[in-house]
Amino acid sequence: NTRIVLASRPHGAPTTGDFRFETDPVPSPAEGQVLLRIRYLSLDPYMRGRMSDAPSYAEPVPVGGTMVGATVGEVIESKAAGLDVGDHVLSYSGWQQYAVEDARGVRKLDADTPLSTALGVLGMPGFTAYAGLEKIGKPRPGETLVVAAATGPVGATVGQIAKARGARAVGIAGGPRKTAALLDEFGFDAAIDHRAPDFAEQLREACPDGIDVYFENVGGAVLRAVLPLLNEFARIPVCGLVAQYNATSAPEGPDRLPGFVNQVLVKSLTVRGFIQREFVDELYPQFLAEMRAWVRDGTVRYREHVVDGLTSAPEAFIGLLEGTNFGKLVVEVGAA
Ligand code: NDP
């Protein structure tokens, strides 16, 4: 069993040297457990936080520990009732080829949608989009919603749900290939490249009626450009700040916090951070029902970026924080 462990805590952007491959015998299941061969490993921005020991809402991966992550695995040996060899399950087995899991800790997957969607549009990222809009963003017909990292599994789903709810969706992404996909593939009403020198100007032009929902995925320059465009009573689900996950110090320049708080006051903004798991008990069944139907009838489309082999995981993850992924980043773990 080959697994990837955290070799050292990164300073700034992670490097391949922060990861190490280790090999040990394939484990055996005890009563009530299954042995899984991992088919797909999800790579997600939050893993950068787990590599750090800065205080957070989740425990860090210990140095020398297996990197964590959601996985789709095939049952190859079962000592658990209700799970048979050949079944596919969603588990949290991390960056490795094989894993033993308690039957209680896995969820059996239906065969009616591609297996990897359980890690993206029909899994945690899709649910994050759904819950953030359902509980906080609440887009209404005719309103304008803005989201960045918009070709990723959270952002692409946010834009399409907003459209399904009758709002106008403006997507922000890095580079012309991604902005083209926002219009052609995901049906956004406008698409803007955050790397364009006149990005803030373009965003203003794309939002002639201001912004009612800003789904915050990135922070940084995008947030700065959004602030002056917010309408009264705008909602900001604060979901992620990927632009600053590799930061080693505070940004240079004048402190923008006073300006931000002033906007919250004068426009009566609601700003609410959330971690998706807060809403799992309340919303997950409703999410799965609605999202499955949307994926089947084409209301919500999804894009995946599949890399081949567990050995590709460190480099692919490093690229995730810089935008080299184009769609939900998934590792097809493979045999060797
Ligand atoms: P993505 O697949 O969208 O990958 C991250 C993307 O961020 C990159 O592809 C890149 O896209 C973009 N990006 C990186 N740096 C910058 C920057 N400086 N400015 C603008 N965009 C940047 O990831 P996900 O869809 O999985 O996650 C999106 C966000 O949601 C993340 O912040 C993540 O942490 C958060 N999240 C939060 C959860 C919660 O419970 N609160 C749960 C799940 C995710 P591009 O090339 O387009 O710039």
Question: Can you describe this structure in just a few lines?
Answer:
This protein is an alpha/beta fold and 336 residues long. It has helices at residues 46-50, 124-137, 153-164, 176-184, 199-206, 220-226, 257-266, 280-297, 313-320; strands spanning 2-6, 19-23, 33-42, 71-78, 88-91, 98-102, 107-108, 144-147, 168-173, 190-193, 211-215, 230-238, 270-273, 304-308, 328-332.
Description:
The protein has helices at residues 46-50, 124-137, 153-164, 176-184, 199-206, 220-226, 257-266, 280-297, 313-320; strands at 2-6, 19-23, 33-42, 71-78, 88-91, 98-102, 107-108, 144-147, 168-173, 190-193, 211-215, 230-238, 270-273, 304-308, 328-332. By secondary structure, the chain is α/β, with parallel strands linked by helices. The chain has two domains: 2-120 and 302-332, Medium-chain alcohol dehydrogenases, catalytic domain (Quinone Oxidoreductase, Chain A, domain 1), CATH 3.90.180; 124-277, Rossmann fold. The strands form three sheets. Strands 3, 4, 5, 6, 7, 14 and 15 form a seven-stranded mixed beta sheet that branches. A six-stranded parallel beta sheet has the order 10-9-8-11-12-13, sandwiched between helices. Strands 1-2 form a two-stranded antiparallel ribbon. It is globular and about 60 Å long. Helices cover 27% and strands 24% of the residues. The structure holds NADPH dihydro-nicotinamide-adenine-dinucleotide phosphate. NADPH dihydro-nicotinamide-adenine-dinucleotide phosphate is lined by residues 44-46, 125, 128, 148-149, 151-155, 173-174, 178, 194, 217-218, 220, 222, 239-240, 242-243, 274-276, 320, 323, 325, 329. Keywords: Oxidoreductase. It holds the Pfam family ADH_zinc_N. This is NADPH:quinone reductase. GO terms for molecular function: oxidoreductase activity, acting on the CH-CH group of donors, NAD or NADP as acceptor. Residues 17-331 form the Enoyl reductase (ER) domain.
